[in-house]
Design goal:
single chain, 209 residues, alpha+beta, Glutaredoxin, Antioxidant, Horf6, Chain A, domain 2, seven-stranded mixed β-sheet, four-stranded antiparallel β-sheet, 7 helices, 33% helix, elongated, binds benzoic acid, oxidoreductase
Length: 209
Amino acid sequence: MAIRLGDTAPNFTATTTQGELNFHEWLGDSWGILFSHPKDYTPVCTTELGEVARLKPEFDRRNVKVAGLSVDPIEDHHGWAGDIEETQGTALNFPLIADPKREVANLYDMIHEKANNTLTVRSVFVIAPDKTVKLTLTYPASTGRNFQEILRTIDSLQLTANHQVATPVNWKHGDRVIIVPSLSDADAKQKFGEFETVKPYLRYVNDPS
Ligand code: BEZ
């Protein structure tokens, strides 16, 4: 069944390039990203995994653990890792789940039969420390993801979690944010001090983080 926002991210155990992993235990109190790619030894996936490895310091800074997944066997993951390091300039530094029986792929509805009935699509699940799913994305095999956008969504989700604010169109870290409608003007004044009211439902405040 499809996983929807607010659902608890299903737990699983799996073999990864960093050993056996119990997903919930491995996440601990961190935020998490679980993302699938269609196939090892393919061009778009090679560039994506290199980029995720390159961005590890950015994920660490945000207290986010990242795990990748495909239905290829662990031997292929280990072999392909050498190609990723050679061609992308960064070694794999996060666990890559081997899911040849498609157990995790099915649990997370990562195989969309009308796109491809055996391979995973490019799914992304962002998971909060309480294990609820906060964001999902689905890209086709032919479109590499923009992991800067995924970092941006994490910045937004973490602001919302910590400060009762939302982020407007094209927002990026440091830009003004929006006070959520459920917060009264009086409470907003107490919480943020000054803010700008464009409409009663559209109120901007400087990034409180
Ligand atoms: C790729 O990563 O390049 C790719 C993987 C599966 C199908 C098409 C492209």
